[in-house]
Amino acid sequence: MGCMFCARENEEAAVSCWQLAVSRNPEFAAAHRALAQVLFEAYDDISGAKRELERALACCRAARIFYEKYQLEKVTGASGKELLRLLEDNADLVDRRQDLTLQYIEQLSRAGRLEEAKALLDRGRFYSYEGGEGHLPNLHAFVHIAMGWECLEKGGGKEALSLFQYVDEYPAHYHEGRKYQEKIAHLHYFLSLGYEAAGDTDNAKRELALACKQYDGQGESQYFKGLALRKSGDYRAADEIFRELEREGRRLLASDTLQFFLGFPAALPYEQSQKRTLEKMGKEALFYAALGQGETDRAIRTAQEMKKKGLSTVWVDYLAKRAHRDDGRADFL
């Protein structure tokens, strides 16, 4: 009955049903889990939601319930170190779910443990939906580009190019397959840098041109498309990219309706809020706009706000840390 009431947006009746259920059977994990979700989503009761999820996990140490606990900690501002510790302390549960494994790979990447993240990608077998729609391709690109970028900075041009080239491949053990109309200006931009370092001018120009022609968006691809246009000498088009990111970011933050399929088609646990999705997308666009326009302070502030609310992406986190480091500042967060 609680689920029926919740589906009809009668959260008060749903809470009453689930509270009655756990009063009669305190070991009823499913009722504790349902209570946690409605307390968070309908009443913004973070402490109550965490309490009920802890009870659910104590009643039934299931990987799915742990995944929801991880998600709740993430969206309520747990630090990267805390999230990584949580995953490593429950490694047996992480191994049972591919979405948890991908979260572990992401947290390793954020912590700078790129070799470990790559090792997990190399030996995993991932499937559609369970692997995460878009999460796996995005991590595949990020891990190898970040490793290649660091090699390039140390003078390892050949190794860097090899890593960039591997991003353009899609290992058979991923299974998921590439997305239609994928936005990968960042891949072509770094391939251009890799070929340039190797003295292959023709391929460097070809990849730079491909970066400039990628589909538009508000994420990392659009930022690197702007950099590619700037590197190719088209400063006016590059400036317009970053101005449009600014406009789009402000439009998203002012909106209260998420376009159908603009976000995740089936939202992750505790991320069902349209307001949260719009805020994440809007702030991401503003971060890239500020960074592209040379407003480093504003970009870092935006990234810090996103991180504290659990809205940050691996690319926002990584680029903000680099900007912070290049400015000679203390730790990012």
In terms of topology, how is this protein built?
Blueprint: H1 2-7, H2 11-24, H3 29-43, H4 46-59, H5 63-75, H6 80-89, H7 91-94, H8 98-110, H9 114-123, H10 135-153, H11 157-167, H12 185-197, H13 201-212, H14 220-231, H15 235-254, H16 274-292, H17 296-308, H18 314-326
Helix pairs in contact: 2-3, 3-4, 4-5, 6-8, 8-9, 8-10, 9-10, 10-11, 10-12, 11-12, 12-13, 12-14, 13-14, 14-15, 14-16, 15-16, 16-17, 17-18
Can you walk through the features of this model?
This protein has 333 residues and is an all-alpha fold. It has 18 helices and no strands. The chain has helices at 2-7, 11-24, 29-43, 46-59, 63-75, 80-89, 91-94, 98-110, 114-123, 135-153, 157-167, 185-197, 201-212, 220-231, 235-254, 274-292, 296-308, 314-326. α6 (80-89) packs across α8 and α10 packs antiparallel against α11 (157-167). The protein is globular. The mean pLDDT is 90.
